[in-house]
Amino acid sequence: MKIAVLPGDGIGTEIVAEAVKVLQVLDLQFEMEQALVGGAAYEAHGHPLPDSTLKLAKEADAVLFGAVGDWKYDKLDRPLRPEQAILGLRKNLGLFANFRPAICYEQLVGASSLKPELIAGLDILIIRELTGDIYFGQPRGRRTAVDGHFPGAEEAFDTMRYSRPEIERIAHVAFQAARKRGKKLTSVDKANVLETFQFWKDVVTEVHKDYPDVALEHMYVDNAAMQLVKAPKKFDVVVTGNMFGDILSDEAAMLTGSIGMLPSASLNSASQGLYEPSHGSAPDIAGKGVANPLATILSAAMMLRFSLNQPEAADRIETAVKQVLASGLRTADIWSEGATRVGTREMGDAVVKALG
Ligand code: IPM
Ligand code: MG
């Protein structure tokens, strides 16, 4: 088994180092190989996703990813910006199924901006389609408008599109995930306005016939955004397209108190996966040793479970994280009165210690 370790930019290097430390003490049989990605790769090789990094990722059984991006690259041509590395990995590895769990840890109920009773015990799973939609649809670009409100004006455009097989495969993934949990699936669309999402709704409804034991509901995305803050515990598994999933998963993450706690997995049809924290590179706190490494450590646990067939090791990491939280240690993002404030490395060390 081989893991490609791609720390990336900003806090990426600090948090991935902690996850690697945790993986190393588990004493499992796998090889880890590190490579540059994002802005770091651009600096060294002139491209955010160099061929050598892509090759390593393709050959590996799993990719452990930190984060990419920094404001200083915002002026580069789009193909050279750090974000293109993650988009390129998703596309080239066919990572169409993105799992973003939002779990509210008992000890962190007070860290959310929502009332404790709304989020205590929250455990929802957002499944975001990750290789289609307006993110990848062609054509896109800039041109002179020939129609619309201002013919002759400069305009920009993107294409929202989904094919039947793309919707079918993510729907199957979502129904199967729901079957293993609370047997309730919410499909989020904008069928009242968009052709693409009327089609999405129709196809999801058809796939539902294979899963009569799972309750399916359809919800418009604007309502879903509202329900997530009104009554988040009513959700179990949510499935949606790439764009809506991007937005709703950040919202869901914040319900739990800190995006610094949330892991994610992006899988292809061969269960090869990329595992990354749900948060970004946070350049404002990079290099200060204060970032929360737990989302990355929990992403490593997801990797052991989904791609490396080591469910016991995954359980051990998750239990260790809960123990560390119970002992009162907190990084700045989840700190509250009475808790012990620690830095990135101390948090990683504490998880290693809890693993015994
Ligand atoms: C995410 C991020 C990415 C996305 C960016 C960095 C391209 O926001 O993983 O949610 O939009 O998908
Ligand atoms: Mg996002």
Characterization of the model:
- With 356 residues, this protein is an alpha/beta fold.
- Helix content is 39%, strand content 19%.
- The chain has a ten-stranded mixed β-sheet, sandwiched between helices. Strands 6-7 form a two-stranded antiparallel ribbon. Strands 13-14 form a two-stranded parallel ribbon.
- The protein is globular and about 65 Å long.
- It binds 3-isopropylmalic acid (IPM) and magnesium ion.
- Magnesium ion binds next to helix 9.
Output the structural class: alpha/beta
How would you state the average pLDDT, rounded?
96
Named once each, the bound ligands are: 3-isopropylmalic acid, magnesium ion
Largest sheet: 10 strands, mixed
Output the CATH class name of the largest domain.
Alpha Beta
Shape estimate = globular
Number of domains: 2
Sequence of strands across the biggest β-sheet: 2-1-3-12-11-4-5-10-8-9
Number of strands: 14
Instruction: Indicate the CATH architecture of the largest domain.
Output: 3-Layer(aba) Sandwich
* Order of helical and strand elements: EHEHHEHEHEEEHEHEHEHEEHHEEH
Strand composition percent: 15-25%
* Continuous helix count: 12
Instruction: Measure the end-to-end span.
Output: 24 Å
| CATH homologous superfamily descriptor of the largest domain | Isopropylmalate Dehydrogenase
Helix content: 25-40%
- Residue windows where pLDDT falls under 50 for at least 5 positions: none
Rg, nearest Å: 20 Å
Using the coordinates shown, work out and report the CATH topology of the largest domain: Isopropylmalate Dehydrogenase
